[in-house]
Structure formats: structure tokens, C-alpha cells
Amino acid sequence: MSSSAAPAASSGLSDRQDAQRAPGGQDSGLGRIIDGKALSESIRADVARRARELAARGVVPGLAVVLVGDNPASQVYVRNKAAACEKAGLHSRVLRLAADISEQALLEVVQELNRDPAVHGILVQLPLPPHMDAAKVIETIAADKDVDGFHVSNAGLLMTGKPLFRPCTPYGIMKILESEQVALRGAEAVVVGASNIVGKPMAMLLLAAGATVTLCNSKTRDLGTQTRRADVLVVATGKPGIVTGDMIKPGATVIDVGINRNADGKLVGDVDFESARRVAGAITPVPGGVGPMTIAMLLVNTLEAAERSLQH
Ligand SMILES: Nc1nc(=O)c2c([nH]1)NC[C@@H]1CN(c3ccc(C(=O)N[C@@H](CCC(=O)O)C(=O)O)cc3)C=[N+]21
Ligand SMILES: [Mg+2]
Question: What EC number(s) does this enzyme carry (predicted)?
């Protein structure tokens, strides 16, 4: 692919964005890389501003994160969430529980957080150890503190068009599409992966925005036939490289939710980035795409829970 050697000067673009501009500003044949990190920072700045307004009214938004066991990836995510809270002026509390804690003891911890007026949002980090029934734990969280949006009440409210908390990853993806000014009314949207956490709520949000939605799963026959119709393609399977450039409609917006560590320890998505970028109009990178938006929307949900606490 061609890349301009022109100096970045005052273009205001990152080196990476500048490198994909062909001489004369013509289309270089490479899709734009969507900067989820920059967008997440502007959302977090907005959260910080609203948190200051709340603080002036005597309310500091509080998030409680419950971490069971010592999964190293979970440790990192939980630390990042806590740091993002502090930076935005939200209070965060991390409860670290031993991997062998009983399910009953965990349920009691959640019930205590439900009663605590300083806690506006509760997140129980997944996955939970195998001896726990994750659904039972999630259903124990008060629906009006369920900032993940995983509780059946919140899933039902989303499905019936009256969402309280939107799950953070799909919500962040909607913010990306909005900021990219992707037209969704009447558009073909294809979601690959039908989890309760990403794929299913993603389909609901896209549907509510007027897209025609196809939800694919691990049994979908000839996946490429589905994905090639997509104006907006969201991939959330946990399978690196499941979508390649030949499966993408030219000009499509491609959103990669996967976070996989490859053999050399590098983070990669579910989409084969190099081949996809030659076809897509715009694409999210991994890292720096969807991941930072997930955390930003967790802050938004927590802030809004605190704002609602003032309304009654
Ligand atoms: N109850 C619950 N809620 C969750 O929201 C939840 C969870 N459990 N369990 C684990 C997953 C995973 N998750 C991520 C959030 C941010 C990044 C993120 O910021 N990723 C960075 C890179 C991070 C890195 O370098 O490892 C990026 O994509 O740029 C990743 C993953 C939230 N999760
Ligand atoms: Mg990412």
C-alpha cells in the first residue's frame, strides 16, 4: 500500500493516520483506523465534568468492583477500571475475594453493596470460578445498580426498547458509530457472536437505531456470505482471524471486539487486521479500539446511576 512521506507538520493527525494518506490526499486504499482511545478520553472528560456537578450537589458517584480469585487478566482490567474512576472523580472500591469463597458468601457481599447508599454501581468481574452460578450472582445485583447491564431485568428492558443500563461494550460501539457518523437507518448490520454480554445486546441496539440486523453464531453456515452484506460488521467471537478481508464489503465499518493474545504475546482481535483494512472504510484496532470504550461507558453508567439517585 502506498504511504505518503510528507511531513506530518500541523495536520493534526497521528503518524498512523498520516501514513495512510496517499500523496494528494487521495484514497490510499486503506480503511481509516478508528481511534477508540481518543473517543474514550473525550467521554471520560465529559463524565468528569458531570461528576463535578454532582459533587457540588453532595453526591460522589461510587462504583464497587467485586473480583473473585486471582485471574491475572481480571486483575489488570479491574485495576484499569479503578484508575479510570479515580481520574474522572468517581469513587471506586475493589473487593478482592478468595477464589474458594462460597457462592452464598459472595451473594451476601453483593446484597450488602445493594444496601450501601454510597455505592451506585456494582460490577462482579467475570468469569467467576466454576463452582459459582454466574447467572445467580448477577440476578442478585440490584437492577438499578447493575452498571454492566447484565441483569435479566436490564436485558428485558433493552429488548423492549426502554433500556436502563446498556451493556458497556455494545454501548461503546454505538458511540463509536455515532462519532464516525455511520448511518444506521436501513443499513445492513451483521453481528458475529451471540453472547449475552456483547452480541445479543449489540443486535438490539443496532435494531433500535433502524438497522436490519443479522446475528450470526458458531453454527452459521458460510459466514462470509453473511458478513459480505454488512455495511456495519461487529465481530465478537473470541476467535482470532475469524473474519478476513475477503469477507468484508468494500467500504464497510468494521468493529473488532476480540481481545486475544497471540503466540508472541501480542494482543490481536477477531478480525485479521491487515487484510481487513484493505477493504474496510474504517476499522477499530486492537488494542485502542473497543476496549477503552467499554471502560468509558462503565463510567457513564455509574455516573447516570448516581444522577438517578438524586431523582428520588
Ligand atoms: N462484569 C464484567 N464486566 C466487564 O465489562 C468485563 C468483565 N466482567 N470481564 C472481562 C471483560 C473484558 N473487559 C475489558 C475492558 C476493557 C479492555 C481494554 O481497555 N482493553 C485495552 C487493552 C488492554 C490490554 O492491553 O490488555 C484495549 O483494547 O485497548 C479490555 C477488556 C471488560 N470485561
Ligand atoms: Mg480494543
Answer: 1.5.1.5, 3.5.4.9
